[in-house]
Amino acid sequence: MFRLRNEVAAQRILDSIRKEDVNLRFMHVCGTHQDTLVRFGLDPMLREVGIEIRQGPGCPVCVTTTAEVANAIALAEAGRTIAVFGDMLKVPTPIGSLGDAKARGHDVRIVYSVEDAVRLSSEVKHMVFMGIGFETTSPTTAAVMVEKLPDNFSVYSCHRLLPPALHAIINMGEFRIDGLIEPGHVSAIIGVDPYQVFSTKYGIPQVVTGFEPLDLLMAVHMLVKQIKEGRAQVENEYGRLVKKEGNPKAIKLLERVFRPVDSAWRGFPMIPQSAYDLKEEFDDHNARLVHEDVLKDRPPVEEEHRGCRCGEVLRGIIESHECPAFGKGCTPRYPMGPCMVSREGGCNIAFRYQGKM
Fold first, then answer.
1. What CA–CA distance (Å, rounded) separates 170 from 176?
2. Which pLDDT score is estimated for 2?
3. Rounded CA gap, 49 and 307, in Å?
4. Is 73 within 8 Å of 96 (Cβ atoms)?
5. HSE (CB half, 13 Å, CA atoms) of 94?
6. How far is CA 290 from CA 138, 166, 264, 294, 310, in A?
7. In terms of C-beta density within 10 A (0-12 exposed, 13-18 middle, 19 or more buried), how is residue 229 classed?
8. Positions of E strands within 269-316
9. Which of 8, 147, 205, 276 could form a disulfide with 258 if both were Cys (CB 3.0 to 4.6 A apart)?
10. Alpha helices (H) along the chain
11. CA geometry: angle 38, 183, 356, nearest 5 deg
């Protein structure tokens, strides 16, 4: 009965959108939204009522650059223990992957939290935790930094900030964006206010939403309504979790531990103030400084495999199936880029749910 009620509600939303007779393109920046869009067959349903949704740079593993992964490999080869989340293990680079380094006998360990890495540091000489993720996961890294840490523990921060990437997408102007669907989990930390500029300055309607199929459909409906009424605002469909002010304790912790720095993203040029590095008071645990002697000697690497178009997928320029390597030279078992590695990557999602697009 619950499923039936949801299907009826979904159809009502789709019928309401159809009546508006629109031809609109929206972008989301969340791997979980992409999974919901494809897994539940929402993409073709929405296209039938005039809505196209593109995935932006919402996969944290995917936006981590080849250079950053290569640095972690170099540290492992130099005798440091590298602690990473599982999705990072297979990300390919011209010098192999972290999984390849592990297979060659170097100490690369999969962890489920930064606390795991701290605990395991008692077993090794040098422990380096590779911090991946947006504002959702960066508070967990920040939380351990304010505690008493082992002298041999350091963080290689690859954490990213989402709003600067949205600025980059909009200013690059590579395709039309009629509305933005903002991620619920990031918004639970940063709140609603950081998105306001995209509505006030650029006139883009936005909706913060959750991850259930009805959440995503309601976000689309709300965006269509804004456009039809000539409004450009930030609305919050995910009020059951996201508050306007976000999570003040988490924000305060981030401000205490991290400083925003300019950073490249995969598929993007340098984006100002778009990544987190540790503040000076944490220099003794900043892997970029602690192991600077190793990192400065790493040979340069090409950012993208020549046959991989992951960067264009992340910018919303193409969809995964438009890449010539998709499902042929590039599969989850033999990935050419991180978009096919991470379960939040558009290519991995498209491959797993082929036939639902």
1. 9
2. 44
3. 34
4. yes
5. 13
6. 20, 32, 22, 9, 32
7. exposed
8. 271-278
9. 276
10. 2-19, 31-39, 42-48, 60-63, 66-77, 98-103, 114-120, 138-145, 162-172, 184-190, 196-200, 213-228, 248-257, 287-290, 292-295, 310-314, 346-352
11. 0
pLDDT by residue (tens digit) across 56-86? 999 999 999 999 999 999 999 999 999 999 9
pLDDT by residue (tens digit) across 234-291? Answer: 999 999 999 999 999 999 999 999 999 999 999 998 999 999 999 999 999 999 999 9
The helix/strand count (H/E) of the chain reads as 17, 11
Bridge partners of 181, per DSSP, are 28, 207
Residue 219: both structure tokens together = 């976000």
Query: Worst-scoring range by mean pLDDT, 16-25, 107-116, 211-220, 302-311?
Result: 302-311
Query: Percentage of the chain surpassing pLDDT 90?
Result: 93
From 3.40.50.11740, 3.50.50.60, 3.40.50.970, 1.10.10.1320, which CATH number describes the 65-162+247-295 domain? 3.40.50.11740
Q: Which alpha helices (H) appear in 266-343, and where do they start and end?
A: 287-290, 292-295, 310-314
| CATH T-level fold of 2-60+166-236 | Rossmann fold (3.40.50)
Q: For position 303, what pLDDT does the model report?
A: 78
- 3-state secondary structure at position 306: coil
Whether residue 145 is predicted with pLDDT greater than 50 in this model: the reply is yes
CATH 3.40.50.11750 domain position(s) in the chain = 2-60+166-236
Both tokens assigned to 151: 């002298």
Question: Tens digits of per-residue pLDDT, 322-335?
Answer: 999 999 999 999 99
Judged against a pLDDT cut of 60, whether residue 357 lies above it is answered with no
Question: Residue 54 forms beta bridges with which residues?
Answer: 27
What are the residue ranges of CATH 3.40.50.11740 in the chain? Answer: 65-162+247-295
Mean pLDDT over each residue of the chain, to the nearest integer:
95
